[in-house]
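User: Can you recover a sequence for this backbone? Please restate the input before giving your answer.

Assistant: Of course. Working from this structure:
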């Protein structure tokens, strides 16, 4: 028996019964971008159902329906602007993920808006420079720690989502580390002007209280934090914009990575980064 195309049958059925419904369905499917599920989606409890009002609100945010979003924000007394869909995404994340700048700006005017940090990381990963700029102008970024500390270091509010389904980024990733990983030169420059920096990790054998605590609590997460930081530091985008002498900085980093590659052999990224930095140094010298 040939495989049935349920989507085609559904559209055909709607078109036969209601031309207007077909037009709306086609417009929605055409404008939809695939939602990004977190790695723990299959194991999380998603029994909480949305109200009809919340579903309409999230739908409007996802598809960039500015009049509906504005009307609901201004007139509804029962709307929870931080409600999430069945994938764990709130209206701000849906608007940012679909590059709806105007909808995002409407949402950012609301007090007590959650997951602004997640929205920033999402915009950075997609390279939406105007959206990144608009989010960075939000009053919540007046505190510099918002740009210098990772989600795992800011677990005292709702700036980030702390369940794996609400975000698809590692909890030790800061905005500038992500921008460096993604080679977003303009965003890196923007964040540097805001005072954001990538801190050089402590020596591997450092016995300071902070390193001792992190190593004892979760050795793997501590190692992952280190490799993510070094990937950011070795990024051409970060090297070229943050250092007065990128070649010298690359050589110093290469020496550090050579040592780490011999110590943490399970992380092949150290060797890859070392080879990359050596090639940068070679090209600068001979060309």
């Amino acid at each position: 028996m040939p495989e049935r195309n349920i989507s085609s049958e559904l559209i055909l059925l709607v078109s036969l019964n209601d031309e207007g419904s077909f037009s709306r369905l086609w417009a929605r499917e055409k404008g939809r971008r695939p939602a990004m599920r977190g790695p723990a989606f299959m194991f999380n409890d998603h029994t909480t159902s949305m109200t009809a009002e919340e579903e309409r609100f999230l739908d409007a945010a996802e598809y960039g329906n500015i009049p509906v979003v504005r009307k609901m924000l201004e007139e509804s007394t029962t709307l929870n602007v931080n409600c999430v869909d069945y994938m764990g995404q709130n209206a701000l994340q849906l608007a940012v993920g679909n590059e709806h700048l105007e909808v995002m700006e409407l949402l950012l005017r609301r007090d007590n808006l959650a997951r602004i940090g997640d929205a920033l990381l999402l915009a950075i990963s997609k390279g939406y420079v105007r959206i990144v700029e608009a989010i960075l102008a939000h009053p919540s970024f007046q505190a510099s720690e918002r740009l210098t500390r990772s989600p795992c270091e800011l677990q005292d509010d709702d700036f980030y989502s702390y369940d794996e389904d609400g975000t698809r980024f590692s909890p030790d990733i800061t905005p500038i580390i992500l921008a460096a990983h993604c080679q977003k030169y303009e965003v890196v420059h923007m964040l540097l002007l805001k005072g954001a920096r990538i801190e050089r990790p402590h020596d591997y054998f450092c016995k300071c209280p902070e390193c001792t605590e992190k190593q004892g609590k979760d050795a793997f997460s501590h190692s992952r934090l280190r490799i993510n930081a070094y990937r950011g530091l070795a990024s051409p985008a970060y090297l070229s914009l943050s250092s007065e002498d990128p070649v010298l900085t690359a050589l110093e980093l290469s020496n550090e990575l050579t040592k780490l590659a011999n110590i943490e052999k399970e992380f092949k990224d150290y060797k890859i980064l070392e080879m990359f930095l050596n090639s940068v140094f070679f090209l600068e010298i001979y060309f």
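That completes the design. DSSP finds 16 helices and no strands in the chain.
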